[in-house]
Every structure is written in structure tokens, then in C-alpha cells.
Amino acid sequence: NIKIPTLIFQTQYDAYVHPSGQNTVCDAINASKPNLCEIKFVKDSKHEVFLERDLIRNDVMDDVMEFLLK
Q1: Residue 23 phi/psi, 5° resolution?
Q2: Which of 7, 47, 50 is nearest to 30 (CA)?
Q3: How big is the CA angle at 8 (ends 29 and 33), to the nearest 5 degrees?
Q4: pLDDT in tens, 6-44
Q5: What are residue 37's phi and psi, to 5 degrees?
Q6: How many angstroms from the chain centroid is the CA of residue 4?
Q7: Contact call for residues 30 and 23 (beta carbons, < 8 A)
Q8: pLDDT at 1 exceeding the cut of 90
Q9: Phi, psi (degrees; rounded to nearest 5) at 7
Q10: Separation CA 51–CA 19 (nearest Å)
């Protein structure tokens, strides 16, 4: 039972994780407390967003910092 804010990155070209699984997890978290889970879609990216080229990785890091500072 997750009770802390959760951020999930959903990548456009992920060959390992299907978006439906991420949606299911986030929906389950939000069922107990709305808006506790947030999904960020990362365009033009593959599975590992922190190993992407700078433009994508920097946007993801900005999202992480914004999420942590809430």
C-alpha cells in the first residue's frame, strides 16, 4: 500500500515496460488517495531515461527536481 507521492516516467519507445502496466500501478495508487501518483510521458525516449541524450535527460531531471520540491 503506497502512501507517498509517486512519479512514474513513461517512455515513448520502451521495449521492456508496457504503458498499461504503469497506468495500472498509478491508478491503484490513486484509488486510495487521488493525485498521489503522477505519470510523465517522455517523448522520443527509450527504457532508461537517465541514459538518454542530454536534451531528454535534462528534461527528466527537471521533472524529478520539481516533483521533489513539491
Answers
A1: -65, -40
A2: 7
A3: 20
A4: 999 999 999 999 999 999 999 999 999 999 999 999 999
A5: -110, 140
A6: 14
A7: no
A8: no
A9: -120, 125
A10: 19
Gap between the Cα atoms of 55 and 33, Å rounded: 33
Instruction: Tell me the residue ranges of DSSP E strands in the chain.
Output: 6-11, 37-42
What amino acid occupies position 6?
T
In the numeric block, which cell numbers belong to residue 23? 497506468
Give the helix/strand (H/E) hosting 42.
strand 37-42
- Quote the cell numbers at residue 49: 531515461
Confidence band of 57 (pLDDT split at 50, 70, 90): very high
**18 backbone dihedrals φ, ψ, rounded to 5°:** -80, 135
**Can you give the pLDDT at residue 55?**
96
pTM: predicted TM-score of the whole model, two decimal places: 0.90
* Angstrom distance (rounded) from CA 42 to CA 44: 7
